[in-house]
Amino acid sequence: MRSRYTAYAVGEADHVFRTWHPAARPDVIELDPAIEWLGLDVVDVAGDDTEGVVEFAAHWRSGEGVTRQSGAIRERSTFVRRAGRWFYRDGFVSES
């Protein structure tokens, strides 16, 4: 989870793609360069050695001056372990 957040923050779409479960990932990953990622709060973690759930809030801002916006993406994500590596499978997102 933390490596995926960092990849979004520094614009590494390839890492986001490679850590998405092959059965669920989109064909193309497009990151929005206008979004500045400000921090990650891991709210809850559950699971075992083969499947886990991570609930988090990823804080962001975008724009300048009077057009500046900010918020947090809140998600409960499911990860599965395959060949010794964790892959993002899916998640329920809510924005605030």
Automatic annotation (TrEMBL):
Pfam families in UniProt: YchJ_M-like
Regions that span the bilayer: none
SUPFAM superfamilies linked to this entry: NTF2-like (SSF54427)
Domain YchJ-like middle NTF2-like per the UniProt entry, residue ranges: 1-91
Protein's recorded name: YchJ-like middle NTF2-like domain-containing protein
